[in-house]
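In this section we walk through a basic example: taking a raw amino acid sequence and producing a predicted 3D structure, encoded as discrete structure tokens. The instruction is simple. Fold the sequence below.
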Amino acid sequence: MKESTRNGVFNVRLATLADIPALQKLIAASVRGLQAKHYSKDQMDAAIGSVFGVDTQLIHDGTYFSVEAEIDEGLHGKVVACGGWSKRKTLFGSDNVQGKDDRSLDPRHDAARIRALFVDPEWARRGIATRIMSACEEAASAAGFTKLSLVATLTGEVFFRGHGFKAVERYSISLPRGEMLPVVAMDKAIQN
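The resulting token sequence is shown next.
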């Protein structure tokens, strides 16, 4: 679906397996460009590819979005954002994260997961992440979920709080090379 935002035109669509190389580049650029205020270079390097990365299960489930920026009128060019939701138990992480649990959630009792929302630093603060959040919430609600949960980075906490999420727990995730990544578990009731 083609949409306009401040300073640009973009297309929100379901991600495909063909998007994976572009998504991996986008995620690394987003982490390094937007999270340096809260995390060290060593933390970011250790998290990229494990905690921060592509979970192909979301693409197979049709619950992950890719956003392309229109570089020239009529030409779609660059993937500038991504994010999705999940009906699986896994809270965060790429295909490489330890402890993945792809069992299905029960919408009557469980919260759908908001997963892996990243924006290219050059396209940040233009409303694209908000559009992805709306698409996720609408789709999760249509699937019968009444609650959402996520694990936010310290950088993303303010954004998610602005979208009605409340912090429920602060903890750190163990990363490769002995690094730790402080994060915030957050929940929200879906507004119907």
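Looking at the output, two observations stand out. Residues 2-189 form a domain with the Aminopeptidase fold (CATH 3.40.630.30). Residues 1-6 have pLDDT under 50 and may be disordered. In the next section we compare this with other chains.
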